[in-house]
Every structure is written in structure tokens, then in C-alpha cells.
Specification:
The chain has 499 residues and is an alpha/beta fold. It has 14 helices and twelve strands.
């Protein structure tokens, strides 16, 4: 082959490789909300793997992964996701592009040197290990975890109550990489673009059988758990009040304390008129501490309605913001306060005061607990509350239009993980009520400010899952695998060579 022909062939391979990488990015995006083409998540990585390990010239193989990540990060988060503007929206895909371009530079050579013996384990633990790493980057949370693509398939996701969302991510990635290895074998039988070591048919067959068996066990277990839900549970009528006001209290100086309280009182009466025993409002709706201002009025309102009132408020003090929530019972007694644990740092929200306690309130209608907004995007807060017996977790929230179609799915998984009902009252876009099996009982989702009162009878949760006891251990196992391949891939290649 002449140099000119070789260059032309490489150019075509680069174009096809990049196209396949973009295709994988599109498929992964389409699997997530708001598109919800959930079945694509099981094959979304296949075009990427064929591009990275066969089509793209070996020296440029990491470019495929970089393009894939950059495409997905841009499309998934999108121009409307970040309230910080175009700069941060472009920065994340660029960071993902550069990280993958650098870190995966020698990955194809490693797999060729080791005859693809570690291909599946390396790929799976790398992806899921990085998922748990992301939760320790302030403000990033669990956005974009592959398991979230299945949020509507409650019949399929019940085992996260045992194995966590990381267990489901592992299964999804094993399916992708198992099918990916089989696709590479089929590719080698049809095409021979480079000299590459053959992939063992016996190993591929064993992996496919093992992954298929694990998938059947997961699905069967999920169906058993799904149909084992109590048929006549004890319920509590709850209400999530969405006022339709886009500004939180301290962002709207033209609305004074009295006007805020008057809105609160009127809508609370509406919810109580529909039989609500527990009434939840949106994050930072009140601009005052209810134990210091309007205390008598709020106590009278609770007594009149006979309802437990969840009072979310924000108060600036010399040391910072108190973003807190407290429950007032019909007898006029206040619960312990809860302070938001996870601020939205990329939106400019500061760390709050009084953070670090996770109280559960033993009331006449059940064991109640509160978290606030972004706390539901992490797994730790609901787990700590459920470990203390919480049966209903209320979640005042303050979102923005760009995440309205992607936010409530987090609470589906928090409910299943802990077997608690969750009542999320958001200020204008995306309130939801979820039962302990992840069923959405009532929901409003809009990219335009909308006023709503959601009312539903929610079961008292059992808060008895194995996940509460063991937490995210499978995420840590994946991270350990990721670390192993990061630091010992050279040793594995040498061992293979000696063998």
C-alpha cells in the first residue's frame, strides 16, 4: 500500500471513528430524560467501543472516547442546565474531552498487550468508579449516572434497595462491555484493519453467559420485589404546594414578610381543605425563622387545619445563610430543625449554617423527616434519615427551568433505596410525590412557572432495606477496580508478556 493510499485510508477511518463516537454520545443522551429511550442504555457504548478498538487508527484511539464524552456532556447538560451561563456549560464538556483524551491514550495498547483479558472489567469499573468519584466533587452530585435512564421502569429497578444505584450501573456497563467484546470478535471475523490479537471466543462466551445470567437474576428479583409491595398499606394524605413564584424570599425584596406569610396561609388552607394532614412548601419560601416571627399565626394555622406544616425558610446571618426546614404540629410544637447538607455550588449557593444533624420527628401520623432540594441528588441524606426510621421524607426544593425534566427521577431512586415515601414541593417547575416503590403518585413538570397543589395518599414507608445497612459499597468496589487498573496495568501487561 502506498503512503498516499494509507493516508487516505486513515482519513476515512478517522471520519468513521468520530462518527461512531458521536453516535454513541447521541444514543446515551437519548436514553436519559427527557427523551427516555431507556432501552438504548444497554447498547449505547457499542459504537464507541468499535470505533476506539478497531476503526480509529491506534495512535488516535483515545480521541474517540474524548469526542464521545464531550458530545454527551454537552447534549445532556445543555445550554439551559447551568444557571451560571455559557462559560460553565462549555467548560464541562471540554474538561471531559481533555481528561479522556489524556487518560485513555494507552488503553488500546494495554488491551492488545493483554489480549483483551481485562477489557470488560477495566471498562466497567472505570465508568462506575468514576461515578462515585463525581459525588465527592462539590456540587456535581449523581447527575448523569447511567442507572437513572431506567427511572420509569420501576418493575426493573427494585434491587437498588439491596445493591444500590451503583449495582445497577455495574449491570448496565457489564451488558455494554460484554456485547462490546462480542462485537469486536464479530468485527475481526469480517474486517482486518490492523494486526490485532485475537479475542478468545471461550472467554467471550463465558462473559456473555455470566452477564446474561446476572441480568435474568436481577430482573427476576426485581419482579418478585415489585409484586411483593403491600396491597393495603397505612397511608397519610400529603400535599406539596408549588406557589409558582420563581424567586426565593431573599431574591424578591419587593415582597415583604407579611405578603409572603399571607400567600403561605391562603395556599395552606387550600391544601388542608383537600384533606392534607402533612403540607409541604418550597425551599426558602419564608424569609424569617418561624420560631421567631409569625410564630403565633403559624401555630393558630396548624391548629385550625389540624395539619403538620413543613416550614422551609432562609435567613441571612453574619456568618452566612441558614437554609433550613422545620415541622410544626397541630399542637403548636416545633420539631428539630434540619439544615440543607448539599448546596448547589455551581449555581453560586453557599454552604449553609447548622449543617450536620439529621433529625427524625416521631409524630402521630408517622415518623417524619425533612431534607432540602439538592440533598435528594445525593444518596447519603435519605439513607441517614431512613436509618433512624423515617417513613415519610419531605423535600422542599428550589429548582430552575433547565433541570425540570431531569430532576424528579432522582427521588424515584431515593424512595426505592430507603423504602420511604418522598414529598417534594418545588417553587415553580417540578414538584412530585413518590411512594416507597418509586411510583410517581402526583407530579407537575413544566419549563414555565406553574402554580399547583399536589395531593396524594402516600404509604408509610418501612425503611428496612439492605441498602440502608450497606450503603454504596458496590460503588467503592468499582472505585477499587478503577484504582487497580490505573496503577497496575503496566504490571498486568508485563505478566501477560512473560506468560
Amino acid at each position: 500500500m502506498t503512503t498516499q493510499t494509507s493516508a487516505k485510508s486513515n482519513f476515512v477511518r478517522i471520519l468513521i471513528g468520530l462518527a461512531l463516537s458521536v453516535l454513541s454520545g447521541l444514543m446515551l443522551t437519548a436514553a436519559f430524560a427527557p427523551y427516555n429511550m431507556w432501552a438504548l442504555i444497554f447498547i449505547a457504548f457499542l459504537p464507541l467501543l468499535i470505533a476506539q478498538y478497531r476503526v480509529m487508527p491506534a495512535k488516535l484511539s483515545s480521541l474517540t472516547s474524548a469526542v464521545f464524552i464531550g458530545t454527551w456532556l454537552y447534549l445532556y447538560f445543555g445550554p439551559s442546565f447551568f444557571p451560571g451561563g455559557i462559560g460553565i456549560m462549555l467548560a464541562l464538556p471540554l474538561i471531559g474531552f481533555l481528561l479522556n483524551l489524556i487518560t485513555q491514550k494507552g488503553l488500546r495498547k494495554f488491551h492488545e498487550d493483554t489480549h483483551y483479558r481485562w477489557f470488560i472489567l477495566n471498562g466497567v469499573t472505570g465508568w462506575v468508579g468514576f461515578e462515585i468519584i463525581r459525588t465527592f466533587i462539590p456540587g456535581i452530585a449523581t447527575w448523569g449516572f447511567v442507572n437513572y435512564t431506567l427511572w420509569e421502569q420501576t418493575w426493573l429497578i427494585q434491587p437498588v434497595a439491596i445493591f444500590s444505584i451503583y449495582g445497577l450501573s455495574l449491570l448496565i456497563m457489564f451488558i455494554n462491555y460484554g456485547l462490546g467484546q462480542a462485537a469486536l470478535r464479530l468485527f475481526d471475523r469480517r474486517f482486518q484493519l490492523d494486526e490485532v490479537p485475537s479475542i478468545s471466543p471461550q472467554s467471550t462466551r463465558r462473559w456473555l453467559i455470566g452477564i446474561g445470567t446476572a441480568s435474568l437474576i436481577w430482573t427476576g428479583l426485581s419482579l418478585v420485589m415489585y409484586f411483593s409491595a403491600p396491597t393495603n398499606p397505612e397511608t397519610v394524605r400529603v400535599a406539596a404546594v408549588q406557589p409558582g413564584i420563581t424567586e426565593v424570599a431573599f431574591q424578591n425584596p419587593d415582597m415583604d414578610h407579611q405578603e409572603r406569610y399571607d400567600i403561605y396561609e391562603a395556599k395552606t388552607r387550600e391544601a388542608a381543605a383537600q384533606g392534607a394532614e402533612l403540607i409541604v412548601w418550597s425551599e426558602l419560601f419564608l424569609p424569617f425563622d418561624p420560631q421567631e416571627e409569625f410564630t403565633t399565626e403559624l401555630q393558630a394555622l396548624a391548629a385550625e387545619t389540624g395539619a403538620y406544616l413543613v416550614l422551609p425558610y432562609g435567613v441571612f446571618e453574619e456568618d452566612g445563610l441558614r437554609n433550613e426546614s422545620i415541622i410544626l404540629n397541630p399542637n403548636g410544637e416545633f420539631s428539630e430543625l434540619y439544615a440543607k447538607a448539599h448546596p448547589v455550588l455551581f449555581a453560586g449557593e453557599p454552604y449553609g449554617l447548622n449543617v450536620g444533624t439529621f433529625p427524625v420527628y416521631d409524630s402521630e401520623i408517622g415518623k417524619l423527616a425533612t431534607m432540602i432540594c439538592y440533598d435528594g441528588n445525593y444518596t447519603d441524606v435519605t439513607r441517614k434519615l431512613a436509618a433512624q426510621g423515617a417513613q415519610i421524607i419531605v423535600a422542599p426544593a428550589s429548582d430552575w427551568a433547565g433541570i425540570a425534566e431531569k430532576q424528579n427521577l432522582h427521588l424515584v431512586f431515593r424512595a426505592i433505596e430507603t423504602r420511604t415515601s418522598i414529598v417534594n414541593a418545588e417553587k415553580a417547575f417540578d414538584s412530585v410525590i413518590v411512594d416507597p416503590y418509586g411510583h410517581i403518585l402526583e407530579e407537575t413538570v413544566s419549563t414555565e412557572p406553574t402554580e399547583a397543589i399536589l395531593v396524594a395518599d402516600v404509604p408509610l414507608g418501612s425503611a428496612d432495606t439492605l441498602y440502608i445497612q450497606f450503603g454504596d459499597v458496590l460503588g467503592w468496589v468499582a472505585l477499587a477496580g478503577m484504582a487497580f487498573f490505573t496503577f497496575f496495568s503496566g504490571k498486568l501487561a508485563e505478566w501477560e508478556k512473560r506468560k
